[in-house]
Amino acid sequence: MKKLIVIILAIIFIVSSLSFAQSPVDKGTYKIGGGLSYKSYYYKNKELNYYEFSLKPEFYYYLLKNLAIGISTEYLYSKTESGYEYKRIDLAPGIIYNLHYKNIYPFIYCCVCPKFIWNKSINANNTYVKLPYLKVGCGLDIFVSKNISIEPYVYYTFDDISKETSLKNSIGIGIRIATFLH
Fold first, then answer.
1. What is the pTM of this model?
2. Options 1.20.970.10, 3.40.50.2300, 2.40.160.20, 3.40.50.150; which CATH number does 2-181 get?
3. pLDDT tens across 26-35, in order?
């Protein structure tokens, strides 16, 4: 896993060093990035304890200066100690708007997407469920070089927006790395 992360970072560095964009968020710029995350949840009830691993690549294109549209994806895998497995793939079209302050570009974003979910337990077959959600958030693109940024961000998710009441809303924080190509 560590080798894969080093290889991905090296590719991003090489590709971004070949890019000559005047501003990282100019019209015509491509933003390619992503992150990995791992979470572990522990409850008093041992059957509820579980871990979660996710891979989150994203691709955006700046239609105008500071305004990009694109797609965020996520593959999530989790498993409980009792053997229940949960896999999810999200394909979220979204929009990003950047501001600018020195080499820091604050941003806000919004995306809506269906979740493609596979559940599996010891005594049950796989199931497929499709639920839409809305995610809004903000963060910072902190440029460590001309075209590479580290992105700390915070977001709020409204799950199952197709119903009058949400099944589960959540708040989260994360960090990604991105390269901006012109």
1. 0.72
2. 2.40.160.20
3. 999 999 999 8
